[in-house]
Here is the input.
Amino acid sequence: MSSATAARLLAPSRWRPWELALWAAIWAVAALFAQHAALVNEIAILALFALSLDLILGYAGIVSLGHAAFFGVGAYGAALFAKHVMPDPMVGLAVGAGLGALLGLVTSPMIVRGTDLTRLMVTMGVALVLLELANKFDGLTGGTDGLQGVVMGPLWVPFVGRFEFDLGARVASFYSLTVLFIAFLLLRRIVHSPLGISLQALRDNRLRVMAIGLSVNSRLAAVYTLAAGLAGAAGALLVQTTGFASLDVFEFHRSADVMLALVIGGAGWLWGGLIGAIAFKVLHDLISSFTAQYWTFWIGLFLVLLMLVGRERLFRPRSWFKWGKP
Here is the structure.
């Protein structure tokens, strides 16, 4: 392989200046606007959740309407672990991610062999079953009242110190942002690896991938398990930073919200989940401050406009005059 060919293949994996600038801006906003730390924390959790969905939808082509199943398992797992075993946040985060990954591994055989319609129904069904189980075993989960009394211990950072979770959510926001950044680095490495490239090829043409001898089912199961673990980590972060777990983590609107964030930002590139989460949460916060009852109408109107005009044209005013032209 020539040096020019190798450089061309490695080009997509290199960091671009705008990526570094955008991450620097995200950290700067979190530091400078401490009064909005709770919103920053919500955005970071939704962004991590959106990254996990983008991995299976945008890169592997696995559609899902029940991604909240892994989110909820991670949330309740971390909450029960903190309440009955130990309140260490890092260990609880690992427990939540591990339980989400385990559920993804167990349910992956139902996903890898089905069609898109089958996957939609199966994923949504898994989330609904877990919702009913959490409601049934109210002695363990708290049922409709939620699991209360989840108290987290201090966050220990090597060579820096220990940080107590504060009511202003400042420690929580930096904690969630750090987990999001690490997950972003991990996924960025994966999607530019041979595995990530083979997943994109599988998404585009499954038969050709099978024809060249690659194992389709094992790749789909692996990426589904990884995405489930990340979703479980997002659920664990929610519980750890709010101190409360409820049946809401399994509700359909969780899966719908993360899908909307991905629609806004765009699937198939990692920044889509981050940008979509920022846009969705900021729009939600701004619109609900003016009309708390009808904010969903304006979000829906924005999505309709986004779909009709197109993401590229909507954010480039000069292209508005070309609307409707090929």
